[in-house]
């Protein structure tokens, strides 16, 4: 791996010129000191991402396809410049219009669960549907483990933001749709996986209809008592297999567009 020299720690570089490097593996040693990371100055994004990936692995994310994709997508390119120095922390971040981008750990966990469904011989998912594009970050990660990604957002402002965020990264296999994801997107189906970044009372029937046999839906869902949990629904010829996993906190799944 080639390494660009990092900027001197004291040089005040605006967020816009932080070097973005993609397609690199984890460096042999951590190269980012606490100071650089905390200040956001001299941020070498590939090195900080590699550190995030090591943390994800230590937290139990085991799928190399997920770890590689998380190491490649520049999360800082999806958040406001004021939040850039938190982009690789294990925290959710505001993305505008009252919505949030999930913690890296939750994104990785959900994609890992999705990959447990229907993959091709190269270990890739076919067509995937994402509900809740938000800033477009998760769509970019999904694009690295799937053939095609259809991603729906109900808020026009965020749909446009995601478009602007993804444009410079050139991710040709992501198709952004503006609309109500509760009804899915029948034209793109049947899907090898459906993933939701917003939690409803139940899994909409349209998603189940548009899911391929052998594939999974991974979505937060409100349980009795009001708290959300991560739900995995697997569609088999024998019926639906539902697993309720850990507690999560997602923004609500809402109907209609705005
Ligand atoms: N995956 C996103 C996370 C966005 S937060 C990212 O990486 O940034 C969840 C998003 O779901 C919000 O933007 C919210 O507006 C959207 N959402 C909620 N209900 C929806 C629906 N019915 N259809 C489409 N998007 C929806």
Automatic annotation (TrEMBL):
Entry-linked InterPro entries: PCMT, SAM-dependent_MTases_sf
Gene3D superfamilies: Vaccinia Virus protein VP39
Keyword Methyltransferase: yes
Superkingdom field: Bacteria
Top enzyme class: transferase
NCBIfam families named among the record's database cross-references: pimt, PRK00312.1
Protein family according to the UniProt entry: Belongs to the methyltransferase superfamily. L-isoaspartyl/D-aspartyl protein methyltransferase family.
Protein name: Protein-L-isoaspartate O-methyltransferase
Species annotation: Ramlibacter aurantiacus
Top-level taxonomy: Bacteria, Pseudomonadati, Pseudomonadota, Betaproteobacteria, Burkholderiales
